Input
Amino acid sequence: MAGKFTPHSLQKFNGTDDPKIFISVRNRVFDVSQGATFYGPGGPYENFAGRDASRGLAFNSFEKDLLTSLDDPIDDLKDLTKDQLESLDSWEEHFENKYKVVGTLVEEEAKSKASE
Output
């Protein structure tokens, strides 16, 4: 079940709207459903469910204000410090070793093409 997810289509995989729980880290989408105690409703990392968690993981923070708005472009993470990138690398390795990649996070497609 590998596919492409936009920030809006990923959002439903939050353990509430859909029983599956997906989290994006550096544009790769992981199925973290087996970790529902952590990532599901009521869990310490529930803010990341159905979202791009990259910036929050880099900051080792689970605050909602570190989540990129669903209507903004995907976070390019270019402003992260060396320490923040190392933290993100460590988290990404954790996800790679524990959870299955089910797709990639891509930008929303334009609602209508401009005619020329």
